[in-house]
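Bug #77: duplicate submission created two jobs. Keeping one. Sequence:
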Amino acid sequence: MATTAMSPTGAPTPAPAPAAGPGPDADLATTTFPVGLDQALAVADQTVPGGIVTKIELTFERPANAWVWKIDTQQNTDQHEITIDAQSAQVIADDRDQELSAPVAVDPRKLTPADAAARATALLPGSVAEWTLEYDDGVQRYSVDIRTGNTTEDVNVDVNSGTAYRD
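Kept job's structure:
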């Protein structure tokens, strides 16, 4: 057990528990986190200065029992998948790989995650389980997982047109 101080009697006192965040069933259309998208992007830029952001994801990571930002950023052929705790801004992982030398940047300012979630849930009512922004087949799009009862279904939102559609 981690300790931070000694009690007046000399016995160790336990460290405070980490702040509890939303559980895995949180609706991302209505849930906010202490670490928002802008701060997560800043942490990614500090981790890989000048990298091109090629993918952004907000997801619940079961092994860590926490909501995390996963941001892929690339410099030349070096790709980093940076996992950032959505409660503390701590970098949990920086997985590295080699990719093509011509990365395509995603831009969450063209269509915000909140706007994409609203368009996806207008097409398929339910709660937002997770979302990803990436280029797929030459199109910048959000992939939004919508919880409907006991199932999760995928809705895509084209960033340029704002159109929500299902495959």
